[in-house]
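Incident log, support desk, overnight shift.

02:14 A customer reports that sequence design results differ from what the structure should imply. Their input is reproduced verbatim below. On-call engineer (initials T.W.) acknowledged and began investigating.
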C-alpha cells in the first residue's frame, strides 16, 4: 500500500483538543492539516492550515473537503458513519466506517469482545422497561444502565442500586436503546493505546492506570503500577482487538483489572485518547505522532517510556493556576486555546516527569 508522504494534507474530522494535538504532530512531520467540524471556533483550527465549519450531513462541504485532502482521520468517534462512507468514495478514511460502527455502539463493542473471547462485564441489551426488569434479574444489583450510543465521561449512564429505581433509570437515559451491565469489582482502571497501519504493523503503548473524578479522567499513572505479566496481557488484548477490527489508525482500549487479575474490556475509542497525552512528553513517539504515522501508512515508532510520569487534566477554571505549573520542576503544561472554562471542560493538562 502506498504511504502518504510528508507535504500531503491530512483531513481531521472534529475540532477539539485531540484534533489540535494531532495537527501539531502532523506539522512536526511536515504535513498540512485541514479540520472539518460543525462547531464555530474549534481549538484545533488555531493550529491547522485550513478549516471547514459545516455539518457532518452537508454533502457539498464534505465533497469539497474530500477533494482538498489526501487522507481523513478523526478525533471524535461519534462522527456519523454516513459522513465517513461518503468521504471514503473519494479519499481513504482511517479509521474507517467499519470500526466506527462498532465503537459507537456499546452493545456491538461488547459483542465484538465476546466474539474474541475477551472478558467484559456481564451485559444485556435493553430496549424497553420490560427488558430492563428481565436484565436486572440476571445481572443482579447494583448494575449500570448505559445508552448504547453517544455516552461519554459518564453521560448517558445511571447506576441502579434498588429495584424501585428501574423505571426512573429508564426515564433518566431517555428510554433509548441501552445495555445493562453488571458491576465489575475492579482494582484499577487501565488503558492501552494501540496503532495499526494499513500495511498491518501493530504497536501498543505501555498500559497505564486511569483515575477518574466525577466520571472524568483526572490522572493517568505511567506506567500502570501492575505486574509486568498483567501489563503484557493488557497490551496483548489491545493488539488482538486492533488486528481483528482491522484498525487503520490509532485506538484506545479501556479496561478494568478485576479480581484474580482478570482484565475486562470496557470500551474502545478509535482515536487519540486522553490517557495517552503523557506520551507527548515522556515517550519516544507520542500517540499523536503514532496516529499520523499509522494513518499515512508510515513505519510505526517506538513507544518506549523515557520517564515514568503522571498526567493530570486541567478542567474548567483550574487553568487559571497555569503559572503554578510553569514553576514546578519536571512539569510540562499544555493548554488547548479554549476561551470558555466551563466546569468540567477539558482546558489543558500537565505532565509531571518522575525521573530523579
Ligand atoms: P464508561 O463510560 O463505560 O467508560 O464508564 C465510565 C466509568 O464508570 C468507568 O470509567 C468506571 O469507573 C465506571 N464503570 C463503567 N462500567 C462499569 C462496570 N460495569 N462496573 C464497574 N464500574 C463501571
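02:41 Re-run completed on a clean worker. Output:
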Amino acid at each position: 500500500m502506498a504511504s502518504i508522504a510528508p507535504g500531503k494534507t491530512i483531513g481531521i474530522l472534529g475540532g477539539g483538543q485531540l484534533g489540535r494535538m494531532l495537527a501539531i504532530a502532523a506539522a512536526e512531520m511536515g504535513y498540512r492539516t485541514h479540520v472539518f467540524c460543525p462547531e464555530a471556533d474549534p481549538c484545533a483550527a488555531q493550529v491547522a492550515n485550513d478549516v471547514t465549519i459545516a455539518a457532518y450531513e452537508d454533502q457539498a462541504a464534505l465533497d469539497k473537503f474530500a477533494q482538498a485532502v489526501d487522507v481523513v482521520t478523526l478525533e471524535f468517534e461519534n462522527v456519523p458513519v454516513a459522513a465517513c462512507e461518503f468521504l471514503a468514495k473519494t479519499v481513504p478514511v482511517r479509521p474507517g466506517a467499519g470500526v466506527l460502527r462498532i465503537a459507537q455502539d456499546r452493545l456491538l463493542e461488547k459483542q465484538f469482545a465476546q466474539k474474541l473471547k475477551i472478558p467484559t462485564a456481564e451485559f444485556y441489551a435493553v430496549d424497553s422497561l420490560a427488558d430492563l426488569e428481565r436484565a436486572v434479574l440476571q445481572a443482579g444489583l447494583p448494575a449500570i444502565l448505559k445508552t448504547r450510543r453517544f455516552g461519554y465521561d459518564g453521560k448517558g449512564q445511571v447506576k441502579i442500586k434498588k429495584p424501585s429505581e428501574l423505571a426512573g433509570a429508564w426515564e433518566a437515559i431517555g428510554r433509548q436503546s441501552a445495555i445493562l451491565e453488571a458491576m465489575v469489582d475492579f482494582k484499577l482502571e487501565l488503558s492501552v493505546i494501540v496503532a495499526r497501519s494499513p500495511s498491518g504493523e501493530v504497536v501498543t503503548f505501555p498500559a497505564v492506570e486511569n483515575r477518574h473524578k466525577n466520571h472524568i479522567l483526572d490522572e493517568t499513572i505511567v506506567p500502570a503500577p501492575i505486574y509486568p505479566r498483567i501489563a503484557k496481557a493488557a497490551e496483548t488484548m489491545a493488539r488482538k482487538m486492533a488486528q481483528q477490527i482491522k484498525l487503520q489508525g490509532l485506538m484506545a482500549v479501556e479496561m478494568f483489572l478485576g479480581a484474580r487479575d482478570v482484565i475486562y474490556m470496557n470500551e474502545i475509542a478509535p482515536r487519540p485518547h486522553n490517557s495517552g497525552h503523557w506520551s507527548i512528553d515522556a515517550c519516544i513517539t507520542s500517540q499523536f505522532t503514532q496516529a499520523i504515522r499509522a494513518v499515512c501508512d508510515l513505519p510505526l515508532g517506538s513507544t518506549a517510556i523515557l520517564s515514568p510520569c503522571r498526567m493530570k487534566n486541567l478542567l474548567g477554571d483550574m487553568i487559571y493556576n497555569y503559572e503554578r505549573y510553569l514553576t514546578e520542576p519536571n512539569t510540562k503544561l499544555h493548554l488547548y486555546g479554549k476561551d470558555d472554562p466551563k466546569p468540567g471542560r477539558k482546558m489543558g493538562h500537565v505532565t509531571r516527569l518522575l525521573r530523579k
